[in-house]
Amino acid sequence: MIAKLKIKKGDTVLMISGKDRGKTGKVIRAFPQSGRILVEGVQIRKKHIRPRRSGEKGQVVQQPSPVAISNVKLLCPKCGKPARVGYRVEANTKHRVCKECKSVL
Length: 105
Ligand SMILES: [Zn+2]
Description:
The protein has no helices and 10 strands. The chain has strands spanning 12-15, 24-31, 36-39, 44-49, 59-64, 67-68, 72-75, 82-83, 85-90, 93-98. The radius of gyration is 17 Å and the shape is elongated. It has a domain at 12-80: SH3 type barrels, CATH 2.30.30.30. It is mainly β. Strands 6-3-2-1-7-8 form a 6-stranded antiparallel β-sheet, with no helix packed on it. Strand 9 and strand 10 (93-98) form a beta hairpin. Zinc ion (ZN) is lined by residues 76, 78-79, 81, 83, 98, 100-101, 103. Zinc ion binds at residues 76, 78-79, 81, 83, 98, 100-101, 103.
């Protein structure tokens, strides 16, 4: 079963654990199968790329690696607080709402 993520691409999240605790970043990708998300500027891993031909230099690229959804909190764009997310159904449409300020996200 694929869990429905309360956090989606484009959201801004706050890291609540790990070495990047306190950092905020934008969600660039969500992986509902594993309950993980890729957050811009967070959990940066250095990846070494070997030279493919002789004479070429190896490179080090920095890439974010996925973090578990339980390590982040959604930052509400309306009230600016780390929000708990709830749902509200109106006219058969499910809206995601911030439990702090009650606005639809
Ligand atoms: Zn809010």
